[in-house]
Amino acid sequence: MTDWVLRLIDAGGYWGIFVLMVLENVFPPIPSELIMGIGGIRVGQGRMAMEWLLLAGTIGTTVGNYFWYLIGHVLGFGRLKPLVDRYGRWATLEWRDVEALDRLFGKYGQIVVFVFRFMPALRTMISLPAGLFRMGHVKFLAWTAGGALIWNIILAYAGFVLGRNFSQIDKYIGPAATLCVVGAVILYLWRLATWRPKG
């Protein structure tokens, strides 16, 4: 994966960073750690400017998350009840759980979106419920961009400091991502097997 990311960044420059960060948030298997880390390396080599790298990465992240937010927003809270009633067993959800999530987003939606930006497995997933529960567009974009900017600064400066050695992290990111996915599937299957509706 590292070679493909490198080629796209070197061919597309800041546009390559933007496209990769959009894709990373629409198709999470592409790790932002690798994209922004390589961007940081290019800054250290004098081939990119840090401010433009961060701008491209943050806008790309925000656009990718907005894609899932809009899907949730179009689907809407009102259309969710028939789906939960019919398929809630497979999502291990009851309508009371959905109402609790709605109250959570009503009170703490912006904080939830901001904090989840720092959680690798969940930072994209949180955009869908943010749209479903009608978090405001401006609030969503502002808190997503703020969290993304901080995360991207950390990753880019890690690449800048570590230099070429950062590319070796891909050897660990791949297996770690696979382990997270396998763990999530196991947890889901366990919850599916043991879940019983309370209502």
Description:
It is built from 9 helices and no strands. With 199 residues, the protein is an all-alpha fold. The chain has one domain (2-194). Helix 2 runs parallel beside helix 4 (50-75) and helix 3 (32-44) crosses helix 8. The radius of gyration is 19 Å and the shape is globular. The protein starts with a helix and ends in a 5-residue tail after the last helix. The model has no long low-confidence stretch (mean pLDDT 80).
What are the salient characteristics of this protein?
single chain, 199 residues, mainly alpha, 9 helices, VTT domain-containing protein, membrane, transmembrane helix, cell membrane, transmembrane
